[in-house]
Amino acid sequence: MIVGKESAGKTCLLRRLLKEGISDVSSTDGVDIVVRRCKINIENGKWTIGKRIKDDKFGRIKRAIIAEEKTTMDVTKGQKEFYATHQAFLTSSAVYLVVADMKDDISKQGLSQYFADFQHIGEYVDFWFDSIHCHRTTSKPASNGHFNPPILLVFTGKDKYNKAEFKKREKELNNQIDHVFGFQSKYHHLYNKFYLSNTKDSNEDFEKLQYAIYETARKMDNWGNAFPLKWILLEHLIEINKINGKNFINFPDMSNLAKHPDINILEKEELLLFLRFQHNVGNIIFFENIQDLIILRPQWLADAFRCLVSDKVDYRRLHHLKDWTLFTRQGKMSESLITELFNSKDGCQLSGQKK
User: Fold this and answer.
1) In this structure, how many other beta carbons lie within 10 angstroms of the beta carbon of residue 224?
2) pLDDT: is 58 or 93 the higher one?
3) What pLDDT sits at residue 45?
4) Is the pLDDT of residue 125 over 60?
5) Which CATH architecture has domain 230-298?
6) Architecture of 2-217 per CATH?
7) Half-sphere exposure of residue 173, counting CA atoms within 13 Å on the CB side?
């Protein structure tokens, strides 16, 4: 998952990792869930990348039987209006790339300053470490001294410095990191740091980051875990529902899918285990305290958030001035305002799903 302040180069970083061009990159409005099938050779860490890589269930079952591994990349990126929504998409099973521009200082921000300066909160690396620290898998660091989920800190904009200036700035940033995090436990999430230029560095430079992602992932607790093959079949049914335009499903309907004769998941606890796993790897969004709303397509939720909190809305179209004042001052949204916001962002297909 790629997170960080806006305009730090997250989209360009993703494109370079996947060996795609960056000439047409534009500012991201909100959270994008970009699922790319990437095969990683577990012997040497080499990535096989391609938009057309198929994820057929027969091949996956065959690979599972002969104990091969395959990974997917779920990437999120966002702007300041969406910082409060990010927790819906973060998981404990991801490798996080926290992206910052080399020219920006890493400032220490206390909790009161966070709320006083919320418009700029995402500019602080400290904020992203806090968000990820909420998803730590243990109360104490592992024997290697690290917490999971792991963080790779990526500084962009290296091309703005000559060799001497770069060395000086690198030292300054390293000192700031030590000063900001000090003895704080969230510092243990940091596995490695990288300094890159999205525009000037070669593919080989980004292949080093690819390999670091592989090396980091293989040290996580969930690497190489065995799961029932029938889970692949249930995941396949979920994909069919997504293809057919279904964005969410209730628990009884999911339970009926699981009871398919070829799957035969009959116990609720096993189904919950499957749903937790699917949530952790980013395929769905599932919260156990809202079991009857299983979101099959996370981008659907991101699109709903985009309608409600994006700053790219023509507010002059909003005629519910009293409702709008209530929203901006107290965060309360009337049903009519929700409808208006959906319509103003071409989200009218969401109007029937306001509840």
Assistant:
1) 10
2) 93
3) 86
4) yes
5) Orthogonal Bundle (1.10)
6) 3-Layer(aba) Sandwich (3.40)
7) 22
